[in-house]
Design brief:
Blueprint lengths: L35 E11 L7 E6 L21 E4 H17 L3 E5 L7 H13 L3 E6 L9 H5 L3 E5 L5 H8 L4 H12 L4 E7 L7 H11 L5 E8 L5 H6 L14 H14 L5
Parallel strand pairs: 2-4, 4-5, 5-6, 6-7, 7-8
Antiparallel strand pairs: 1-2, 1-3
Helix pairs in contact: 1-2, 6-8
The structure holds iron/sulfur cluster.
Iron/sulfur cluster (SF4) binds next to loops.
Length: about 280
């Protein structure tokens, strides 16, 4: 049984490992109540993870293993801090008045928020009751777990589409592409506002056909407000080294301006709003 601790503020770039060694594996979560959960950290002043000023909670657990992941210390629950949902909500309540007045809200990222479905559901529901805008950042791989009531607690989905090509997606994430596309189509069918995020990794995801495939898939979706092209950065590479993991992209450069512009133009040419 993991020890209940206090969730400390921090940054997505902090390394946090081995805090809850008795935690279950991330594919064996049983949190029907959602009274407790595992979190990496939270940030209080993000302007990138949804509209306005955001508090962002990074929850632990992810079933993907992206080759360029900058937070491998969120993959396993055992690396997270075991906290009560009551403590999380007390902390959120302290920030709620400021977030409301600044037109911001709560974003839950990770890791993958849908690994701990009941825990994140309770946080979203309480945030809505506090009058906060809510957003989830997700790969969509576990989108089938999100029933209509879960989605009803979320105002905006930040959906990471890592590839349009099943073979590339498998190579990059270790998992199948189909659940993500299925989730994206479902979001479109219920007009759930979404921002699509695409991580541009030279030599990995930058193939023009791969980019075109995402652009053509997303362009007809009226619920998608933006496509965000996110260039690879190396701020998480030290985590791979510290955790004894082999980092494939240790020497991969960030994409240069020409490559970023080419990809942005591909999205624009398909009819997407890009930034
Ligand atoms: S989905 Fe996100 S947290 Fe999970 S491995 Fe990929 S980049 Fe990392």
């Amino acid at each position: 049984m993991s020890t209940v601790r206090t969730l400390e503020p921090g940054s997505r770039h902090d390394l946090r490992v081995g805090i809850s060694p008795d935690a279950p594996d991330e594919d064996k979560v049983k949190d029907e109540e959602g009274s407790f959960g595992y979190c990496h950290s939270y940030e209080t002043s993000s302007r990138y993870d949804g509209p306005g000023l955001r508090i962002v909670i990074f929850v632990s657990g992810c079933l993907l293993r992206c080759t360029y992941c900058h937070n491998p210390d969120t993959w396993h629950l055992k690396d997270g801090t075991y906290v009560s949902v009551d403590q999380v909500l007390r902390r959120l309540g302290e920030f709620a008045p400021a977030l409301r007045s600044l037109g911001g809200g709560l974003t839950i990222s990770g890791g993958e928020p849908m690994v701990q479905l009941a825990f994140t559901r309770r946080i979203f529901a309480a945030a809505r009751q506090m009058g906060l805008h809510t957003a989830i950042e997700t790969s969509g791989f576990l989108g089938d777990r999100a029933d209509a009531s879960y989605l009803s607690e979320i105002d905006l989905v930040l959906l990471d589409i890592k590839s349009s090509d099943p073979a590339t997606y498998k190579r990059v994430t270790g998992r199948d592409l189909a659940p993500t596309l299925r989730f994206a189509e479902r979001l479109a069918s219920v007009s759930k506002p979404a921002w699509v995020r695409f991580t541009l990794v030279p030599g990995e995801t930058d193939d023009p056909q791969n980019v075109d495939g995402i652009a053509r898939f997303v362009a007809p979706m009226k619920n998608v407000e933006w496509v965000e092209v996110q260039p690879l950065h190396q701020m998480g590479s030290f985590k791979w080294k510290s955790m004894g993991l082999e980092y494939k992209h240790a020497n991969t450069p960030s994409p240069n301006r020409d490559l970023v512009n080419r990809v942005i133009e591909q999205f624009r040419a398909a009819g997407c709003q890009v930034r």
